[in-house]
Write a structure and sequence with these properties.
CATH architecture of the domain at 44-64 and 95-303: Orthogonal Bundle
Largest sheet: none
Order of helices and strands: HHHHHHHHHHHHHH
Strand content: under 5%
CATH class of the domain at 44-64 and 95-303: Mainly Alpha
CATH topology of the domain at 44-64 and 95-303: MetI-like fold
Distance between the termini: 55 Å
Number of helices: 14
């Protein structure tokens, strides 16, 4: 149809749709992730520093075969108990093994035990607490008594007793530390499930005929992810300390597998322990635990809405401005006729 005829008929001419500019795939998601990370670093400088240190320690543990200068199990009887020098930067132990290589390989073992135990214990405790908080009844009552019994023992004593009962070794240490993490995850996730089960959308799911397993999986469980991440990040440091303590007491990972706890235990065999055999493993434990604790605190502050800056300003009342009272305006009275109807 001709453009002039279209105008005379009062019709709008067809418009060409604007060209769609497609961005490169992946750029928006990548920019949003970088933005969130930079915002997290600005708000929690210490947590960001702890995350960087923790990531570096994990990288060292993964790349231990490439970074270690020597075999951590190879003994050199010509260089027994040598202080740090140009040939061995962290010195050697009582049988001539390189301390730097043993610290690097010890990071691999200690972190593997800590990550495995925390994931296992926190996951089992979270699932248990989810079932307790949603199902309630006698199951919840019995479960809470069991968790109270587990929490009545100190973590180290309980882990040591379990490790001695089931035998020493890497799997035994992981299971022993994981059992100490179960009641903490169960209690926290149970409290979250208790509050979520009363929500309207959960009741709607039950009213629609969905089973308890389906409601817990699709309606309650997603709300427990943030507390689970906070628990897992904050318990890593505790798990590393327990593993080092078990190794120091002789009920952890058996030698000659290098762990930081075993290295501290080997250093006290001498009448006067060499300072480098105590300093470097202890420093590795301290830095790693501090890094993961700072990272866990930062994740908790970020994921907990009650600790957000906006919520804190709302609670404390800081930054509030009093509203200015508006000037009163006179409203004219309506004029009515004798019959009470406006003219």
């Amino acid at each position: 149809m001709a453009p002039g005829l279209v105008r005379r008929m009062g019709l709008r001419p067809p418009q060409t749709p604007p060209a769609i500019v497609r961005s490169a795939p992946g750029n928006p998601a990548r920019s949003s992730i970088l933005t969130e990370l930079s915002r997290f670093a600005r708000r929690n400088t210490l947590a960001a520093a702890g995350g960087l240190v923790g990531a570096f320690i994990v990288f060292v543990a993964v790349a231990a075969p490439l970074l270690a200068p020597r075999d951590p199990l190879k003994a050199d009887f010509r260089r027994m108990t040598k202080p740090p020098d140009a040939q061995n930067f962290f010195g050697t132990d009582q049988v001539g093994r390189d301390t730097l290589s043993r610290v690097i390989y010890g990071a691999r073992t200690s972190l593997f035990v800590a990550f495995s135990a925390v994931l296992l214990g926190t996951t089992v405790g979270s699932v248990w607490g989810l079932a307790c908080g949603y199902l309630r009844g006698r199951f919840d009552l019995v479960s809470q008594r069991i968790m109270e019994i587990l929490q009545s023992f100190p973590d180290l004593i309980l882990a040591m007793a379990i490790s001695m009962a089931i035998g020493t070794g890497l799997p035994a240490v992981i299971i022993a530390i994981a059992i100490t993490r179960i009641p903490f995850g169960g209690r926290v996730i149970r409290s979250v499930a208790l509050s979520i089960r009363e929500m309207a959308y959960v009741e709607a799911g039950r009213a629609s005929g969905a089973s308890s397993a389906r409601v817990m999986t699709y309606h309650v469980l997603p709300q427990c992810i943030a507390p689970y991440l906070v628990l897992a990040s904050t318990h890593l440091g505790v798990a590393i300390v327990i593993e080092a303590a078990l190794g120091f007491l002789g009920v952890g990972v058996p030698p000659p597998t290098p762990t930081w706890g075993n290295m501290l235990a080997d250093s006290i065999t001498a009448l006067i322990p060499p300072w480098w055999l105590v300093l470097f493993p202890g420093l590795a434990i301290t830095i790693t635990v501090l890094a993961f604790n700072l990272l866990g605190d930062g994740i908790r502050d970020t994921l907990d809405p009650r600790l957000s800056p906006a919520f804190l300003r709302l609670v404390t009342g800081s930054g509030r401005t009093q509203p200015v009272a508006a000037a009163p305006t006179e409203t004219p009275a309506p004029s009515l006729t004798i019959s009470g109807v406006r003219p």
